[in-house]
Amino acid sequence: MEKVLVTVSQAPDGSFWCHAEQDVYGSGLNGAGASVKDAKADLMACLEEAKADYVENGGVVYDVDFSYQYDLQSFFEYFSFLNVTDIARRAGINPSLMRQYASGIKNAGERTYARLSACMDSLTKELQAASFRL
Length: 134
Prior knowledge:
The chain has 134 residues and is α+β, with helices and mostly antiparallel strands. The protein has 5 helices and 4 strands; from the N terminus they run βββαβαααα.
């Protein structure tokens, strides 16, 4: 199985882009759309086209496992059920400033991304440890 990192970001025109950081089936994969969901669907269509060309030229199909790296705008667009203000508070970031980062008005620095990453790691662990009782 080949692991492939996909960068997801918002373009200046408001559209969203997915870009595979390495070639898959001998092709560079990209996807675009009005939403992150649309961009990911376009990326998967590009994958299927690359796979078909690869097989047509005698290649053997292999499994691909994508992991996604988001900028702030695309992250909160895709995971819209997460409350930006609550995430900011958990990460120790000013909620008003965080909303500006999420909307693309301001750009977050490396330190802010590190705080958000640590916050998301913590939330992930909490969610994985949670279950429902009947």
